[in-house]
Amino acid sequence: MLGVDKIIFGSDHFARSQRNLYGNFSYILERAFPDPEERGMILGGNIARILDCE
What we know:
- Helices cover 56% and strands 0% of the residues.
- It is an all-alpha fold.
- The longest helix has 15 residues, at 18-32.
- The termini are far apart.
């Protein structure tokens, strides 16, 4: 409904193994957004655009 250009990924979750934590988020994002370009937008592209850091 909102569109992928309005989603920004962020987390303040702390885990002993950040690698495993990122793997879990990556797994979920891959299923929710199968297009790699859309995932790229969510994982940094959108915030870069908003902050004019592209």
